[in-house]
Amino acid sequence: MTKIFINPGHDIDLDSGAVNPNTGRRECDVARDAGKMLARYLEIAGCEVRTLQNDDLGMVCAESNAWGADIFVSLHCNAFNTQARGTETLFKSFNGQRLANDIQSQIIRSLNTIDRGVKERQDLWVLNGTDATAVLVEMAFIDNDEDLAMLNNDLDTIVRAIARGVTDYAGGV
Fold this sequence. Notes:
This protein is an alpha/beta fold. It has helices spanning 27-44, 57-67, 94-110, 125-129, 145-172; strands at 3-8, 48-51, 71-78, 87-91, 115-120, 133-141.
């Protein structure tokens, strides 16, 4: 059974992450909701799942490593200048790139979002600190009102696509 560790980005009480300037919608709340949905879909698909939302990323990675996770998915919302839009998936390793491609292609096929692609990042704690194949999914730009509407109205579609990307990857390993 594939073990999936889900890390919804940012701590609910300590660090909201990005915030939409017009509505006050917080990244940590979107990530929490997405994490709960993703866990449910992956469990239905037969995966073993653990979820931890905390700003102590060393602890998050240590928990994932101690559990022996096969796949690590960190869920986030992007923010930049209220104009940028789209979805991107970040990776560090070769297998991370494969997982990122599977997730990104499922999201792009499922939703009318801008494809910002998959990008290699060597500087992200969660991609460096976990032994599992890891990705960080930037679902949309929470500071852009059009992307926020997508997060509010289509989060289930986004999360189902992420789950399909994970199971596509897990089935090919």
